[in-house]
Predict the structure.
Amino acid sequence: MDQINPELESINSLQITTKINNEKALKKMPSRTAQIRLMSSHEEVYEPCDDSFALVDALLADCNNLLKHCPTLCMEIGCGSGYVITSLALMLGQEGLAVNYIATDINPLAIRVTRETMDAHGVDAELIITDIASGLEKRLAGSVDVIVVNPPYVPTPEDEVGVGGITASWAGGENGRSVIDRILPVADRLLSEKGWLYMVTLIANNPSEICLYMREKGYASRIVIQRSTEEESLHIIKFWRDLDIEGDNEKASADKSAPGRLMEYVLTQLPPFTFWRCSDRDNK
């Protein structure tokens, strides 16, 4: 019988022990994003998908800036399953920041699912059933430091926009812009002087046009994350107030800045993609 080298046995034992301890440590470490296994769901509520993950990844990529930003009020418009607002609360909560959260959705079932998701992760938010921010604009005007939104961006017939159930989560009307164009001015009114907006857009939404519209409102912008699949090409765009261009709309329109021209060039060079958003719609 072969004899076992005591030194080799000791090394193997140490490696196994180290691996077990590392796994235990990882389990104890609080997650910075919502866990799929803890997510609540309903057949009429949009589940986390590529666009949800891209938005949360953008927040993670910008997390250091968010922490330095020290927001006191964060808001999600169209919370769906609660994956994004829960992830944001987990990111900021680990640093002990005193942040209040608000999330809205036109779908009552989405509000219920978001509540269950947040409860399962030990975080909290004020959840409100409303269309975008209807009834809240006076109360929240100029006070929201961070807004996140994964809007209905898929080009659809206009008669699908705003209908009940899960369809409201994807139906964006002509060019996928019907709901986006309603959200932008609301976000402008709600954002504080240091407010940031993170928005998911599709190539078909003409992101460069969206950026130009926000520039006229006094906002600079940049693409935080670009993610392409066989089905779609997504851009997560961050907007923030820029004092250098605020109130100078005529000059900004006549003489676009180099970053603005560069963004337009990059966006127009990207190939077109078909429009898809993972949901039960594909099985109907």
User: Anything to note?
Assistant: The beta strands are 73-77, 100-105, 126-129, 144-149, 191-202, 219-228, 233-241.
